[in-house]
Amino acid sequence: MAMCYLKDLRNHLEAISNIPRKILMVNVIITLLHMDDISLDLTHCASPESSDMCSLERTDLSAYEGGNKMVISFTGLLLDILHQNLPSAVLEQEHGLNDGITTGGRQALEWRIGSAKRFIEDWEWRLSILQRLLPLSDRQWRWKEALTVLRAGPI
After folding, report:
1. Which domain of life is it from (predicted)?
2. Which tens digit of pLDDT belongs to each residue from 62-76?
3. Which of 60, 97, 138, 140 could form a disulfide with 67 if both were Cys (CB 3.0 to 4.6 A apart)?
């Protein structure tokens, strides 16, 4: 079910055509990853389109259900989605940001983009550490344990 939510997240972020709004949404998601004890029951929120798609994908993800591989797969896909939804070049930023944005606003967006890219690069490195620990772990990780490693002190 978690992979279905990632698919919905990807679709929602890709549907945002306003670049500053997309940058803001990526940063909101990053902020949520820093929060502790988030507990939501999202079973009532699944869209009909995503539930149909997810039922097809469940067979592909059966090897990842639960445990360490699921944590790594979910986190990797989440980071990919965040990375793909950030403007990739200054030209793309300038193309989408010429609509009445002040110099200060442009600088704030550039700071948010840089901050988000550093976060993603940092968590990708930390995810690689988790992947190296995978064969050494005899027990299954919970999401909280993986977040402990991902949120560990600065490198």
Report:
1. Eukaryota
2. 344 456 778 888 889
3. 140
